[in-house]
Amino acid sequence: MNGILNIDKPAGMTSHDVVGRIRRVAHLKRVGHAGTLDPDATGVLLVCLGPATRLADYLAAEGKAYRATLALGATTTTEDASGEVLVRVDARAITESDLAGLLPQFTGEILQIPPMVSALHHEGKRLYELARQGITVERAARTITIDSIRLSDFVPGATASATLEVVCGKGTYIRTLCADLGAALGVGGHMAALRRTRIGAFGINAAILLDDLTPENIAGLLVSPSAALAHFPLHPLTQESEAQDIVHGRSLICDLPEAAVVRIVDAENVLLALGRTDGERLHPFKVFG
User: Do domains 3-62+201-226 and 64-199 have the same CATH topology?
Assistant: First the structure.
């Protein structure tokens, strides 16, 4: 079994819980996920099976889209609804125009300080492990890319709320975006709900419910490794001798332009390796065959 499942993760499960469930359904140990979702979050979670687990980093690096609920007037310890409320402020003075006018400042390449409740490391420990101990450490701001933020709904009031459609790059924390928006409006805020609607070409409309997976149908629901990486250039091999060269790590003459990642497939479109080109030769660096 070798491929990727586009799962619609339910609330109340960790990403690791989903992997464990799929291991049992598939009767397979080699299962992993690409791009963690918090337990309370729902939506697209890519789960890799078999050799496709080696593609997880490439899939996780793809652009993502989210639907987030921003709750104004309350700041929490975790920047989301699971944390303790630190400060409450009456947010009824905030209008839809106030929030809409602020969004361009949070679009493009911006600096963001990662939350304490994150999987980043600090002196050998993950930040969320320190947070559970009540420890807060200084975190350096990182450059992230937010391609767009669309305000699709706004409900005014003392506890105003808004629905945001966010398209962003790897490493963006939506909970921190919500907290930063609330701070910029002067009333504080946190992320009340989150649903991931896309990773790369994998959208929520094609996602599979966990309860719909069975040992009988799971293989037929897999997206092939080559198809999952369709955004990378393709180099098909037509000769068995070429395939043998690739699986043994030998380079080939290639007329593809210079590229950091190329899909190398056999005559049946099975992914044999990932390679890179220098404009003259194709050099495999991750072999599957």
Answer: yes
